[in-house]
Each structure stands twice: as structure tokens, then as C-alpha cells.
Design a protein that fits this description.
Helix content: under 10%
Number of helices: 2
Number of domains: 1
Radius of gyration: 18 Å
Order of helices and strands: EEEEEEEHEEEEEEEEH
Strand content: 35-45%
CATH topology: Jelly Rolls
Number of strands: 15
CATH superfamily: Galactose-binding domain-like
Low-confidence stretches: 1-28, 222-246
Oligomer: single chain
Largest sheet: 7 strands, antiparallel
Mean pLDDT: 78
């Protein structure tokens, strides 16, 4: 299995606009998931605080803001998914972590990928992400201890971790970019599989939030024959490159 990596540039997958097929090495394959949130349709289920997972325009202050935002990480004119903030900029909206408790509060967006049969499955996964906080370097608290974890899950729990960050400071370069990699997992029997974006917030002096966009998940050839009838192929996706820094 190739270890997943993240980078700002779009991955090797090119979107065929207006369809639910992705061009990979010259061959079109049906996407299990392809969502850039442009239509504003909710295709996920949520856990945690009500309203803490939502779709917002890129003009929203949580994207455009500096100290309490994502520093315009997502290009103008689109939509993206927010995990961990019900409204406003980072630190101005619920949730802000459970007061007076070390037990974390987890909010997540979970995308159903369909039913998979028994056997080994290999999937191509790509998405844009930013994990940021209102806590700046030099504060009395060394780091914001909130966690951001992306996983593949079945009905029994976590199958595979794709990406994990256990803490965050303001505007850390390695906590924003594009994830692109291969995921491999084995099922002993037929089961449902989900892609889960989870943010766990703890009682601390800095709030945090996650932004997600341009999700593409494709079954590799060996996996296609094992997919059940529950496979989901969503509408068009547009993979956007983030403008290079001036």
C-alpha cells in the first residue's frame, strides 16, 4: 500500500465535468464520492453538536478571516464544508470545546460510500483540507490540543486512518493543503463503508475548525467487482487548484 500524502496541488485524478466519472490513467471509472459542495446539497450525516457541520460560501468570514479564519484558503466563488463551527469565524461560534472537562466533544461529517463485499479493497482518495485555530503562537497555552482525523469506517468502527493531526497552532502550513493517496482495507464480510471527517474539541483557550472541499473517492480496478448495489456516485465535481502565493 502506498502511504497517503497531502499537498496543495490537485492529485492525479482529473474530473470529467458534468458526470460522476473520473479519468484515471486514461480510463473512466465511476466515483464512489465526488463532491465540491457547489450545489449546497447535504450528502453526509453528522455527529456531535447540532449545526457544527455545515456548507458555506467561500466569501464567509470563516474562510476570508485571518486571525479567526482560514486566510482565504479556498478560492473565491465556491462553497466548502465546515466542521466544528455553527456560525461566524473560528472562536465566535459554537462549539468551543466542553467547558471544565478534559473529555473531548467530537463533530464529524460522514459520507456513505455504499456496500462493499468481502475481500481486499483499494480506493483512490483526494480532498482539500484546512485545520486551523484562533490560538496564536506565543500565547500562554503552548498549543491547541484539538484533533482532526479522517478515517474510513465500517459498521464496527474505524477501518483505516487516512490523516491525523493531534494539535494545531494558527496558520500551520502542514495542516492545510491537498490530501491525495491510496487507501487499502480488508473486509471479512459484506458491510457498509463511510468516509468520516472528525474534529474533536477539548476545553482550552483556543477554538478550532476544519474546512473540506473537492472530495474525490474512486475504486481501483480490483475493487470494482466487489462493490455492492449500494454504491453511490454523486454529480459533477470540480477540482480547483489553489492560487500560488503572491
Amino acid at each position: 500500500m502506498t502511504s497517503p500524502s497531502h499537498r496543495r496541488a490537485a492529485g492525479a485524478h482529473r474530473a470529467l465535468l458534468g458526470s460522476a466519472f473520473i479519468l484515471v490513467s486514461g480510463a473512466a471509472q465511476a466515483a464512489l464520492l465526488a463532491d465540491d459542495f457547489e450545489d449546497g446539497v447535504v450528502r453526509y450525516t453528522t455527529t456531535g453538536v447540532a449545526g457544527a457541520v455545515n456548507i458555506r460560501p467561500t466569501s464567509d468570514v470563516i474562510n476570508t478571516g485571518g486571525t479567526n479564519g482560514f486566510d482565504a484558503f479556498f478560492p473565491n466563488g465556491g462553497r466548502f464544508l465546515v466542521v466544528g463551527d455553527a456560525a461566524g469565524a473560528i472562536g465566535n461560534g459554537s462549539p468551543a470545546g466542553p467547558a471544565g472537562s478534559i473529555a473531548g466533544s467530537t463533530q464529524s461529517a460522514r459520507f456513505a460510500l455504499g456496500s462493499f463485499g468481502a475481500g481486499v479493497h483499494r480506493l483512490g482518495v483526494a480532498f482539500d483540507f484546512v485545520f486551523d485555530t484562533s490560538l496564536a503562537p506565543g500565547t500562554t497555552q503552548a498549543r491547541n490540543p484539538d484533533d482532526f482525523v479522517v478515517t474510513l469506517r465500517d459498521s464496527a468502527g474505524v477501518l483505516l486512518e487516512l490523516l491525523r493531526f493531534d494539535d494545531v497552532l494558527r496558520n500551520e502550513a502542514d495542516r492545510r493543503g491537498r490530501f491525495s493517496g491510496e487507501a487499502q482495507f480488508t473486509l471479512g464480510g459484506a458491510d457498509q463503508v463511510w468516509l468520516d471527517f472528525g474534529l474533536t474539541e477539548y476545553a482550552n483557550s483556543g477554538d478550532s475548525a476544519v474546512g473540506i472541499d473537492n472530495i474525490v473517492l474512486i475504486p481501483e480496478a480490483a475493487s470494482i467487482a466487489l462493490l455492492g448495489i449500494g454504491m453511490i456516485a454523486l454529480g459533477s465535481v470540480r477540482l480547483r487548484r489553489r492560487p500560488a502565493p503572491a
